[in-house]
Amino acid sequence: MNFTSCILTALLSVVAFSLPAFAAGSQECQKPVIALIAFGTSIPEAQKSFEEIDSAFSKAFPKYEIHWAFTAQFIIDKLAKEGQTTMFKRQEQIVNPEQLFKNLADKGVKEVYVQSLHVVPGGEYNELTADKNFGLDLKFSSPLLGNAADIATVAKIISKEFGTAEQYTIVAGHGNDHHISHNDQLVKFNDYLKANYKNVQLATVEGPVGTEAAFAAVKASGLKEVKFIPFMIVAGDHIQNDVMGDEPDSWKSILGLKATVVPPLGQNPEIIQVFIDHLKATISQ
Question: What is the pLDDT of residue 126?
Answer without folding.
Answer: 80
